[in-house]
Amino acid sequence: MIKKLLGLGVCLVVSLMVISGTANALIGVGVLAANYGTAGGNITGYGLEIEAPFIPIPLLNTRIEAVMTSGSNGLGTYTVTPILLKGSYKFPLTPIYVGGGVGTALFSQAGYSVPSPMIYEVFIGYEQNIAPLSSVFVQVGSENMQFSYAGIEQNFSGTCFKGGVRFGL
After folding, report:
1. Do 156 and 148 form a contact (C-beta atoms < 8 A)?
2. Which residues contact 117 (CB under 8 A, 6 or more apart)?
3. What's the predicted TM-score (pTM) here?
């Protein structure tokens, strides 16, 4: 009898460890680094993402992501801050996910602050659990960001690389 209970207890503990190591958090937070390859060169930045069921669709992870980047052009230094509502689908039993997002961005330079029209992104990524409810990720995608102010056009559309750490709550 004791042997059966001990065996059942070991199976229960192992099962809970497997489930907790592969579970997705309902809400979470992540920190990331980003690199945008644009026609005018590369800009890099850092950001924050918050995961929550913003769009209640089964099997869809939704996040709000904000990235702060800076660079310089002929007019001086500037900052670009894209803010996206993103959705992603993780393929079962794999670390691969695909997704997309829409949002806006704020371009600031020399006293001007201009919001962009709608920006969008599509991406593919790889996410690996490193502990229960925490993971590391890398993703590559294409993002469309364009600005127009004072007769000057700025185009930050191109390939984007992002990577970071996510924590579940």
Report:
1. no
2. 104, 146
3. 0.79
Q: How far is CA 105 from CA 25, 53, 67, 146, in A?
A: 27, 22, 9, 9
Q: Bridge partners of 128?
A: 136
How far apart CA 31 and CA 135 sit, in angstroms, is 11
Judge residue 94's burial from the number of C-beta atoms within 10 Å of its C-beta, 0-12 exposed, 13-18 middle, 19 or more buried.
Answer: exposed
Specify which of 21-25, 65-69, 71-75, 142-146 reaches the highest per-range mean pLDDT: 65-69
Q: Spell out the alpha helix ranges (H) of the chain.
A: 2-22
pLDDT for 6 beyond 60 = no
Q: How confident is the model at residue 165 (pLDDT cuts 50, 70, 90)?
A: very high
- Which domains, from first to last, does the chain contain? 26-168 (2.40.160.20)
